[in-house]
Amino acid sequence: MTMRIGISKGGLQGAELIDACSDIAGIELVVADTQDELEERALDCEALMLNSARYSARLAERLASGASPVRWLQFASAGYETVLEHGLSDHVLLTNGGSAWGPTVAEHAMALILGLLRAVPLMERERLRARWDASHVIPHLRSLEGMKVGIVGAGDIGRGIAARLRPFGAEVIGVVRSPRPLEHVDHVCILDQICSVLPELDILVLALPLNDETRGMANASWFHIMKPSSLLINVGRGGLIDQSALIDALRNNAIGGAGLDVAIDEPLCPSSPLWLQDNVILTPHIAALGGRSLDRLIELCKENIMRFRDGLPLRNRVLVPSQRNGSVRAVDL
Question: Which residues are the signal sequence here (predicted)?
Answer without folding.
Answer: none
